[in-house]
Amino acid sequence: MKYNRGLRASQQGHLDCLCGIYSLVNVLAYLYDGRIKRKHLINLLLRQYKYRYDIYDLISSGLDDDEMDYLIQSTLQQGYYLKHYPLIIKKPYQYKIKLRTKNIIKDIFTFINDKNNLYQRVILFGTQEHWSIITGADNKYFYFFDSCGNVKAQHKSFSLIPQKTRHTLFPSAIYFIERLF
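The structure corresponding to this sequence follows.
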């Protein structure tokens, strides 16, 4: 006898837009081998967001890059997290014009595959619908540590041109992140 009548239950994260918050938690979890207290960090991020913005907007619409910048500055780059989990965070494309997708993909590939990257570098990026983290790259794919379970995507599925590909890149929403030590 079928008790669920073929229906699927809603999954955590499918009805909210908290992927940006989860991505920040996952950045520290990945770079610091899971040593962070994830629940504590997510609560801090939500409280911090609530001080400046409407929490309903976060749940229903997600983070934009200005809100992401604020959360990074107010949590990861101050106090406890700066002291215990220091990061170097750069936004190399924020003010650049005349960018080309292939150059960004090449830069991401180079940053992630640097010979000194021993699980100490990630790319945090936001697209039109999702925030995620790139942890690896080969000649064809980017590999993710992702709150929705995404594992990989082809380089060619990313573009700066809206609706040209599955993932639209926003230069101001690309963060190169490195564990300090």
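The mean pLDDT is 91.
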